[in-house]
Amino acid sequence: MQLFYTPDIEPTHPQYFLSEEESKHAIRVLRLETGSEVQLIDGKGGFYTAVIHDAHPKRTILNITSVTEGFNKRSHHLHIAVAPTKNIERLEWFLEKATEIGIDEVSLIISQRSERKEAKVDRLSKIITAAIKQSIKAYHPVLNEPVKLSELLSRPFDGQKFMAHCEPGKKLSLRNELILQSRYLILIGPEGDFTPTEIETALQNGFKPITLGESRLRTETAALEACFEVNFLNRI
Amino acid sequence: MQLFYTPDIEPTHPQYFLSEEESKHAIRVLRLETGSEVQLIDGKGGFYTAVIHDAHPKRTILNITSVTEGFNKRSHHLHIAVAPTKNIERLEWFLEKATEIGIDEVSLIISQRSERKEAKVDRLSKIITAAIKQSIKAYHPVLNEPVKLSELLSRPFDGQKFMAHCEPGKKLSLRNELILQSRYLILIGPEGDFTPTEIETALQNGFKPITLGESRLRTETAALEACFEVNFLNRI
After folding, report:
1. Which residue range or ranges hold the Ribosomal RNA small subunit methyltransferase E methyltransferase domain (chains A, B) (predicted)?
2. Could you say which of 3.40.50.2300, 1.10.10.10, 2.40.240.20, 3.40.50.300 is the CATH number of the domain covering B3-68?
3. CA A76, CA B74: separation in Å to the nearest integer?
4. Mutant choice from A218, A227, A229, A230 vs B, greatest count of B C-beta within 10 A
5. From the CB of residue A135, how many other CB atoms can be counted at a distance below 10 Å?
6. ipTM, 2 decimals?
């Protein structure tokens, strides 16, 4: 399967022109020819089958032969807000793995103990794009610009809100709390965890404290564990 | 907490001498002094507390003050046999994450479609050691030398045997099949999956075919998903 990510395609289009970069890749690297079948995903749930009409190395023309909208639409919406890791590769790894397993939205939070206060969303988003192509997903998870935790905590969210932390106190489990086929926002703290004040503010804003098990997990592992639990519990 | 991995310590020892390398790390890097408290793990379930008796930079002497055997002993035994990934970093990530989440034994399998036929177990084992220190685990997961799939399939195993594959055919789920608090061996194939013949041989040898969900997962993600599922299902 030769899959291209074409976010500007519309389901009504009878033809599509690959960009210069994708055309070069299709014709010069993959050596596709006129008549070859390819697949397109638009990142909004559209999955297209197309045939190469003109194998031009700079402006390949495709005839769309079929369109499926809402391809493998997910039953729930998962938004994970995670503090970027000091070593950015750990965050990149999380984005790749979460995309494979299933995620809808990621926010990067800047909290009091964050060691990294910024992250290049464009660059990180390319990792997500590569992962949806690899795992054949028609929906492109949204990666939001870094946001201060205090701002995120006070924003309205239509769904269940959770915060995973390691400070003492009563913790719930997603297994018991999750309302299936719903919308979830889960916060994962930085290497030094959230501060007691941040946790208190989150609880006041309706976030439920959760545990992700007895193991001491790194930030990116905790985020992936949350992603795994939500998808596993929602799997029929 | 200053944690050292000391596989040669015994629960009856009243004192312990750190190796030259660990002594240098303790005294020159961590700047620990006589009287400082440290922790030791032996990789076999022993968790020790000790006080520095002589802060010698080449031969630090510790007085053992308490010993806990079977520290955080797991309720089940998970052995994952996975084909080493073409890009070895992906296997390294799996080993680190599986150690954090919980695993007991890893085998590296060489199958017909394996792109990588060898792996340096010594080097990979150091990643596991770093991960048990980071996540404070007293048991060191065992990493076995690479083994041919055909050999592993015919070996006796006292527990449940599963094979995750993407070929057509009936698939079971761990959620329905797993006998809790038991022993498990789970096989994860290479980038190109197991061959139909390998799958057939596995089924004949009592391995049950399982699915890890609808997503197309990379080898290391599939192995980690299996690890997640087994630990999550066994969590009380």
Report:
1. 75-227
2. 2.40.240.20
3. 32
4. A218
5. 17
6. 0.93
* From A93, A137, A215, residue closest to B101, measured CB to CB: A215
Residues of A within an 8 Å Cβ radius of B:
72, 93, 97, 100-102, 134-137, 213-218, 221, 224-225, 228-229, 231-232, 235
For residue A198 the two structure tokens come to 């941040």
pLDDT digit string, tens, across residues B111-153: 999 999 999 999 999 999 999 999 999 999 999 999 999 999 9
Cα of B67 to nearest chain A Cα, Å: 20
Query: What's the residue count for chain B?
Result: 236
Residue A82 in 3-state DSSP? Answer: strand
- State in words which class domain B77-234 has: alpha beta
pLDDT in tens, B78-89: 999 999 999 999
Give the one of B100, B175, B217 whose C-beta lies nearest to A135's C-beta.
B217
Neighbour count for residue A43 (Cβ, 10 Å): 19
**Sequence-distant (≥ 6) Cβ neighbours of residue B161 within 8 angstroms:** B184, B185, B187, B205, B206, B207, B208
Min distance B156 CA to chain A CA atoms (Å): 31
Listed by start position, the domains of chain B span 3-68, 77-234
For the residues A41-70, what does the mean pLDDT come to?
Answer: 97
Q: Which of B93, B134, B137 is nearest residue A93 as measured by Cβ atoms? A: B93
A135 to chain B: closest CA residue:
B216
- Assigned token pair, A118: 């910024």
Span A173-218, pLDDT tens digits: 999 999 999 999 999 999 999 999 999 999 999 999 999 998 899 9
